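Weekly modeling sync, notes
Attendees: S.R. (lead), two postdocs, one rotation student

Agenda item 3: backlog of single-chain predictions. S.R. asked that every request posted to the team notebook include the full sequence so nobody has to chase files. The rotation student volunteered to paste the first one in as an example of the format we agreed on. Action items at the bottom.

Example entry:
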Amino acid sequence: MAYSSTFTFVTSMLLLLILAACFNPTVAQVSSNFTPPALPFAVKGPYLNAWLLRKNPNLNSNWARFWNTDSDVGSFTAVIVDNTSYGLQGAFFGTPSSMKAASELSSKYTPTSTMFTMQAGPMQVNATFLSPVTPQDLSQQSLPLSYYSLTFSSTDGAPHSVQIYSDFTSEWIATGDGNAVANGSTIDDQQLLCLETQLVKPTPFTESDDFALDSTGVYATSSSNIQGIQWQIGNFSVVRGLGVNGTGLSNTVDPTFATHPQFNPPGVLAMLADLGDITATTSTPFVIAIGTFRNPSVQVTDLAGEKQLRSPFYNSNSGPSSIHDITLSFLQNFTNAQATAEEFDNNLINATIAISESQQYADLVSLVVRGAMSSMEITLPQSSQGQQDLSDVEAHLKDMGGVQVGAEKSSGNVSPVDVLYAATPMYLYLNANLLGYLLKPLLQAQQNPTYSGTIGFAAQNLGGQFPKAQLQVVNHKLGIEQSSNMLIMSLAHAQTSGDGTLISTYYALLKQWAEYLVDNALTPNSQSSPLADAISYTNQTNLALKGIIGIAAMGRISSLMNNDADSSRYQGVSQDYISQWQTLSVSSDNSHLLLSYGQQSCAGQVYNLYADKLLQLNLVPDQIYEMQTAFHKGQLNSGSFTFGLPLDTCNPTLTRVDWTMFTAAVMTDNLVRNGMISQIHQYTGNMFNSSTNTPLSTVYDPTTGNNSLGINR
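Predicted structure, as returned to the notebook:
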């Protein structure tokens, strides 16, 4: 069901600005003096998610690490210039002592790419790691492949012979299990050299330390337009030595490669390409594809125990199906992918700067885009007939970097509702249909009478271990929180996409949750906000507000469905409740909102105001926004907070990036908004100097800038 949407976004959002981007033809970039804690390396899916930790700042001083920072994902590249080898990427391990280190001249990143300029003797080398972000093209977005490209130019004006040695290891598919045994194979024809590795004993739909134990790792390049290319699979020190000392590779697989644990001794899958003589002009890019394939990618089990296997969208019957053909097509599309990425980067960065007047905001947006887009599997139902239903698209989100109290790493939850809510602005801006694909399996599972007839409020997730999706019929203390999230997201999707299919199909379920909020939202009692907020007060002001906004959202949903009676009821209840809420929530001196009814001692970020603006409900009076803006301005001007404003002034050592950005979005003074963004920017840069050097973490201590929970969330 579709309808005309007049919804317009007018304010900055969590990760992006939901505003029509005014394209500026100048090349956009992030601040050259900003050093984030980690840069995306190959970030294209839950299991292709490698980062370069800048604690060891040079590209050739360490290996990339998996997103949870527990595990290296080994790869190594050297360039041989006039028979002298220079280490370019990855730590020197198992390499000849005579090999020199290329010098890193500069690094920068955009929303889609991370780029390094290196000097290897007389050759300048540009290394680019491009993970395409194509939210309107589900086939490309769901493809678990990233580009690694190298270009060369002579800095002394003379021609120089150039060879490239590059390898990767089975760490890309199973570092979490040191006893795992992996095999190695190759496809080598006139079009493609494709190095592949799989576990000898794969386990479907099972993880070890966040790695999927049923992946196929791929390292590939096009064989055409290269003077010569060789490969070898075997012991790391043997193969790396042969590759960089001038001997060359043997085009063979070591027969012992798959007979021992992958680290005893380490093995590599390597290629050696001869580019010939290169002169002062920049060379044609040498492009490698890095990937991890899985099919099927998600197993969905309903409450009757029936299982459905879902395949990645890129494997639809409309395109190539084998790893060879998919990878070859990906490499052949490199030039177009580069141009598309540059346009995407320019549009996005210029839009963020234009609306926020803040380069710092552009820095932050650019850092998180690949991470947010890589956390999901976009799927279609697997069909034994070879034909897939392209209308039945679902996306399943992995909780990467869980923020539940006591969780140091990912909780592994499937489609956690609070995580999806925090990322909603990103998906709305890039392609609102993505949010619909993520909401659909949550709504579909909970409409089952086994759940909806037992539990009157929304679930927290679709199970506890990705990539197995299975709703659990369990009680919890976040009924107001999650029901409100689902109603707010459902309306936001319908308004932004103009597609009312979800709210029409699941209207009865949404109404059930709205009725639960009518009964509970105004007086939440001991119900909880997200646990990582560490706010446990009775009758939380912020939680009550979200519940009331959820009721108002149901009123809008009813109106869109032409149900005037329901619309009138929910709008009336929400107006009545917001009036009572205001009386209960404002401090006795009318200077700020309380965090708990009547508790005058604690204040903080009432970030759920954001949903009122997101949905354009105009439910909360303007004076509330003005009051909160003045309160946070005073906090900023006090000089007491360097890295961010606390969620709760009675707990000054905890805040969150996502909720702070929600709060910043509703400030009526742009100087206050940008001041809050500046603090997050400073925190992000401070992580580079901290002992916990990781991808950007959500939960942290604003007094020290040290992160605690939510790595890469």
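Discussion: group reviewed the output briefly. The chain has two domains: 38-339, 425-435+479-711.
Action items: rotation student to repeat for the remaining queue; S.R. to check formatting next week.
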